[in-house]
Fold:
Amino acid sequence: MEQHPPPGPFRRTTWRSPLRGPWLTGLLGLVLLVGIPVVFATGLLSYAAYNPDLHPLNDQTPDKGLLGFYLFAWPTQPRWLYRLNQGVHVTLALALIPVVLAKLWSVIPKLFDWPPATSPAQVLERLSLFLLVGGAVFELATGVLNVQNWYVFPFSFYPAHFYGAWVFMGAFVVHAGLKLARAVSGVRGRGLPGGLHREVDETSPERPDPDALVSPRPASPTMSRRGVLGLVGGSALLLGGLTVGQSLGGRWRATAVLAPRGLDAGSGPNGFPVNKTAAAAGIRAEQVGLAWRLELLGPTRHTLRREELLALPQHTAALPIACVEGWSTEDQQWTGVRLRDLAALAGLPSPAALLVESLQQGGDFASAVLRGNQVLDPDSLLALRVNGADLSLDHGFPARVIVPANPGVHNTKWVARMRFLAEA
Ligand SMILES: Nc1nc2c(c(=O)[nH]1)N[C@H]1C(S)=C(S)[C@@H](COP(=O)(O)O)O[C@H]1N2
Ligand SMILES: [Mo]
Structure:
């Protein structure tokens, strides 16, 4: 090694920050050890909320096999369940980005270990790190692109994000198991204050460690430990803080400048965010005019005009719309016909499932299947009005589905046909 030193970054002396060491890496690792399982769990719950086992139409990951072992019938109460779940999932994941980046920065010399392969065990460990880092970057990148509605990847978001999550979590569990003791002792080494009161010029490197995180030739400090934690923590709060308004709603919505649907909600009874406009969905005026009919299919068949639906018993329910992308609305006052009344009208008072189809032609969101428990909830509606006014065209006029705790995407707009099913 002395006579044939490896090229640039593979030389340990290239990496000179006096801040690198087991304390910083351990502290960032422990933060992620708490945060990442929450993001993973809310992600799995979000997947369950789609009821992917119910019907092939809901299932964006038909090859999931055992990975769907935990799926269950998604409940309808509390009505804000999906809103909370997605708000936490998206906001926390975004806030963790600076922590992940800082953690990667703190261990970057390890990426350039030299010689690159010394033993089978070391090769295996490096492979698991590749899955860990690659998985984290992949999940964050696909998640951010989805939240920003920027479908630039050449594959479908759901399966990719779902499989990626399992690969990442597998590597995460292995890594946490191997490194937890080191992380705890690294933090204990300096204690939690860890010299946080020290100024920049008093910021000294840690003692050399077995993982060789500490630079063998540390440069003089340009930032204190307090500074680096402030930078990382401040960035996390900033990213989360400029996003969370899209999930909180109310006056906070105006603060969600990083969210594409944070601000332009409009005003009036229909003044809340729109996912896809009627124009974008290809809905034409003549389809939703007087010629519109709802086709109700079950043991009995009906074709209903909008006036006929309005003549049925109307029910009003205060429910939010909560999108997988993290944004949600406050409760809106939806008025329309209970889905369970329509089920009874179709001759199937306790259906196993309901297939809802939109006027919209094609696209992933043009149809969805709801579960029996979702149909039977007294607040589940085929809504005709919202906040005392007719639905706007963008919110799904002439009629749209709204179900408590349902992911937004299953609240189908511009409904044309409902088929009640005795078996899913
Ligand atoms: N037909 C149809 N229904 C749809 C969609 C769509 O694109 N087409 N978008 C869904 C999604 S992803 C969400 S989050 C909600 C949003 O409802 P809103 O636009 O009324 O706020 O509508 C859902 N219903
Ligand atoms: Mo959505």
User: Anything to note?
Assistant: The pocket of MTE (ligand 1) is lined by residues 273-276, 281, 321, 323, 358, 360, 365-366, 395-396, 408-409, 411-414 (CB under 6 Å). The beta strands are 294-297, 302-304, 315-319, 332-338, 353-358, 367-371, 381-386, 389-390, 400-402, 415-421.
